Amino acid sequence: MQIFSSLAVILALGQFTFGAMIVLDCTNFPESCNNDCYGIYGPPRLPSSLTWDPPSSSVERNRRRGSGCTMSNGLSACNANSGVSPYNNDGPTCDEYPYASTSQGGMAGATLRCMSRSDNSAEGGYLRGNLYRKPIANGGCGNVAPCSFTVAVDMNTIGNSPLCSGANSGTSPLNDGHEFKKLSGGGYAAAKRELSDKDIYAPFPDGNGTFPMHLRREFLMNDGTRIMLLTTDLDMVIPSGLMVATSGDAKVVIRELLGQEKSPALRPLVAASFVA
């Protein structure tokens, strides 16, 4: 145990330089995970590195207005009676990415998704309990701000999040009809690529502006589980031995998986061989 404790201290110190990482268990908030994956991998190509401030209640409210989750009249964009149609039919609460709890929250072009209260609140509670308030020695922020972090998803928990898993037509994340955004003029529209945004889709976007499945980065953890790092940055260095925060005990990154050793949905296509 002394060896493990010493290792934990070393990893925690190393993590201070790198920033924290949270692994989402999407089981209880599949729609929130859908929104995260669309925001990062889809045409919006929103930031994947976030910073928890934490914000005051008033700052967080202003961020929700900025993102569009709260309309100019003070009501939720997902309000059943006067919210944004047809998206308000999906549920009474509005989820936004980037999170309102981070300094990136409230930015123009944030992805919005209406969903159940339980789904929306579950992800918020997960972040608070398993990242923001979790001790640094266990991979969290230790309730010390500002705290920079990246987000990953447990590959075993994204079966109900097709915008993460690629289950929608084999290409993830196409807008499934439930992702929308606030326009600069104040209205709302389906979240999609804008003509003026063509310079932010590198590297190697699919023809529809999404980030290709085979370029998604997957890592093997010390307990044998696999995580997908939600980023389009192919150069981000994820050190072996990095301690990451989870809903249980902290896990440690063993190595990045490449090529055909990745999970089937993330493997590169291999051209068939033909004999003349």
From TrEMBL:
Keyword Signal (UniProt): yes
InterPro entries in UniProt: DNase_NucA_NucB
Keyword terms, alphabetized: Signal
Domain of life, source organism: Eukaryota
Domain Deoxyribonuclease NucA/NucB: 46-139
Signal sequence interval, chain numbering: 1-19
Protein name per UniProt: Deoxyribonuclease NucA/NucB domain-containing protein
Species per Swiss-Prot/TrEMBL record: Aureobasidium pullulans
